[in-house]
Amino acid sequence: MNTSPARFHALALVGVWFLSVLSWATALLLPLDWPVSSMPARSALIAIGPVSEFVVPGQSFGTPEAVSAIDVLIRVGGPFGASTPVGMAVYEDVERTSLVARSAAEPVSVPAGLAVVRFDLDTPIDGNRRFYLELEIPPDNPWPIFVGGTRDDPQRAGDRLFLERRPGWSDQDLAYQFFRRQTGVERFIHTASVRPEMAWTIVLSLVAVLGMSAGLSLLALRNHGWITITGSAVALPGLALLALLVWLFL
User: Higher pLDDT residue, 96 or 224?
Assistant: First the structure.
């Protein structure tokens, strides 16, 4: 008896369900850096500097929620590809009475000038609080360093730029963006607690996509069993969601 078609059907069934479970588990349980603020528009950016170990750039800021990483804009004024280590220290206040978190990165000179540099904090900082951050430029750095700034940004009301630990220009701030590392499930739970209407929109969208996927799977696999059709109906939205997350975050 030729069992090849049956064996192929069994392998296809296992593959469909494997893709279904893997895609949904990855999309929902993989920790990602979710943006919890926005970077100022490129047209509003200015370069502040040069900064150094003597002209220390700092910024007082408030957090909309817990933060685990901060993006800032840095320009290394050397030949393309030149780099230098830069540290970030987050304190409870401008007086630097208590260190809250640290991070380090190595910005590289790029043709665009200001480059987005991510600082992953060694300790996440609390939400709905005010802090003060400083960028630490090494004393032996051979290149001029500039930081990105922004003017009159309403999203940063109450924040203040500091240079050499003194208040800088009153109408300027560092350009920065906050991120929070969470899984998709954790992010959805948080969204449901603060924006229930958005959570319902996500749920209804997933239900609609699952319904369309079920219809397509039923038409394409109507000669197969319900287990195969159900696996396909679940796998397609999972793969689409995983592809969307890869496109957004990687």
Answer: 96
